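Morning!

This is the sequence you dropped in the shared folder:
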Amino acid sequence: MTKWVYSFGAGHKEGRADMRNLLGGKGANLAEMASIGLPVPPGFTISTEVCTAFYENHKQYPDGLKGQVEAALSVIENAVGLKFDDKAHPLLVSVRSGARVSMPGMMDTVLNLGLNDATVEGLAKAANDPRFAWDSYRRFIQMYGSVVLGVDHHRFEELIEHAKLDAGVIEDTALTAQHWRAVVEGYKDLVHQETGKPFPQQPHEQLWGAIGAVFGSWMNPRAITYRRLHDIPAEWGTAVNVQAMVFGNMGNDCATGVCFTRDPSTGENMFYGEYLVNAQGEDVVAGIRTPQPLSSSVAKPGEIPLEQAMPEAYRELMEVREKLEKHYKDMQDIEFTVQQNKLYMLQTRNGKRTAAASLRMAVEMAREGLIDEAEAVMRVNPSSLDQLLHPMLDPKAPRTLLGRGLPASPGAASGIVVFTADEAESRAAKGEAVILVRIETSPEDIHGMHAAQGILTTRGGMTSHAAVVARGMGRPCVAGAGGISVDYNGQVLAAGGKQVRAGEVITLDGATGEVFVGSVAMIEPAVSGDFGTLMAWADKHRRMGVRANAETPMDAETARKFGAEGIGLCRTEHMFFDPERILAVRQMIISNSEAGRRTALARLLPFQREDFRQLFTIMAGLPVTIRLLDPPLHEFLPHADQEMQEVADSLGTDIATIRQRADELAEANPMLGHRGCRLGVSYPEIYEMQARAIFEGAIAVAKETGKAPHPEIMIPLVGMKKELEITRAQVDKIAAEVFGEAGTKIEYSVGTMIELPRAALLADQIAGVADFFSFGTNDLTQTVFGLSRDDAGKFLPHYVEAGILPKDPFVSIDVEGVGEMVRIGAEKGRAAKNDLKLGICGEHGGDPASITFCEQVGLDYVSCSPFRVPVARLAAAQAALGAGGDRTA
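The structure's back. Tokens below.
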């Protein structure tokens, strides 16, 4: 017969930690604690397989389950010397859910199950304490009524408040046995009124009701939504844990508490937690009474630590702390109860912690020999490192919420509201902190985004222009805040009846997507020496290189500071918007002759040469991948009459001619139009100027420093081999000219960005002309899905919520579709040229899940925004270790 039930405690060792899939986290840990000799009240776990069978069999329990439950219940009875449903000496139990992963919507704990109108009298006599018995009974009805029968929890609380009012007391603890007896009667009436049935009096009926509620909670809408969002299979199911009750509310020699084996906020190796005398578990977290500290070393005047109140229990708890850490080799979150000065362990699990604490614990535990360096690398969530690199809001600071958007770029910032990039730049130059507020941003806003402390947009998603650029700059950004309206003319933003005018202060939390009125206090990041230690360990174990997307000296220097091994994407179009050169760019675009374009490009050449010289100098011989001009030309054109007149004057023409040229360049769908390598084919002089600037800048740095740069010139949006042949020939021709003029050569390579499905499918043909591929997964995601990343934010959250997509494909790579294109491109490219260098430079290059995929495909490097370089370094190490890399220190 299939085994469905596993006993633990009282000498039983049927469960183990390696049975987590079967017993759930809670059940496996209870069994494990019992097996290593800790004082765990006896109990049993109904395995996760029952949950699966329950739903497969149309909510029918599998054969043999009830008999196994009765047998396991008898084991508990024999261990504690009490009988379930015995009127004189009743056994009471707790029932808890126990999935492999905790999730919202799962059934809460039910304590004191087995009490009824008869057994409560027996409990009162056995304990010689009627108040304790009736208090326990009201707790049971309240918990069972709420989590099993579905009665609103607040309805029960209202009855307690009435009882306190009638008794003339403030605290629950001041209510007598008679008061609680009256509350119990009120509770039973409430249940009957709400459910149409009396509160169940048979303990076995109560037990099976609670068991069914646990299984039912696995399939409730909140749990299903959470599972979809986190890729948790429904077949995993949940376990049910039934355990003999121990009581922390029997008097002043009893207590209940929660503690951590280390400080979960800082990671310091100190016992951290609190307890309550004469209380049950939910009292500690409910906030009804003020808990007391465990240790005398942290007690404040007037507080009575457990160390002083119950010294023997405290001593034993300290021994348990040490034993659990050595056994689990991680910080533990512990629940305990003291009954008449005897300690009992009710739960342990790996404790949740802040990013700073996670980092400190991992490094210190490795130094203590508890874990090795590889395990320390695996312990820290790469995404959490963002918290350590940016300011964050002080959690204790008061705040007034204005609205919410998407958490597009981490960090927090306060500043006065400005609505234009020009004003952001001018006010920032005067030393003012500004927040740039736009309906949406465009490349023309780059200078204002650089000047701003943070960016707020009401349109766009996690990979909109504002989000991508903000992450690259390390600026906090809240995007797609559709509930906030922006009125450019009135110079005001509004939401929920609140208005903020230009010049007034708002605060952004880029980690949560929240926008607050006024200034909110912040905590500056503090990157400790442990950060560098962990990064060094990560670098030992990763296979892939990590580069940065950068085009300004500040970005490049930030990238180097965070350990980037070169630049994987330099977007040259960002350089064109500089006020000193935008006029020449516009002159080039407006000109209708090659000679006119070359004249304008000659003015741009010195600027571009200096741009590249600075990047090559900062990168000091590391590879620098430079993408030649990619966006459609219309993005650079002026829109305001004043700017149009300025361009007209510079060309000796009139504003009507400028407008006519702008109309000629207008496209219905410019992102799928005349851009990328298509510009290089149509206007070869553009790419020729950029290639000359690259080579002249590289030769200048080689002469200045003695370190020859290695430029990697990337041709964007190639879909056909012939496109790359034409544009590469342009680059090679200019290289020969510059090398001849300089009398020296440098090494360089020419490749392409794979961002079209056709390029991936025909990668073997294109590889014959390319030295490297860089997968531009931002555009590849758009072209594979047929989605605009700037518009999809309006409906993608619904797709994720409805389970159509597991995640936003612009945030984490769509492995099945976009990922398959990357895999095909990589395999075909390498089949044609086995030494073809492969990288990724889309936003996915900084996403840990996407980096794991890149490791599986065998890419050589990932490239991401400068502030995500540490994230990528750690994620790449974890991907290598997870793929079977060396796990030794």
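Headline: The first strand starts at residue 5 and ends at 9.

More detail when I'm at my desk.
O.
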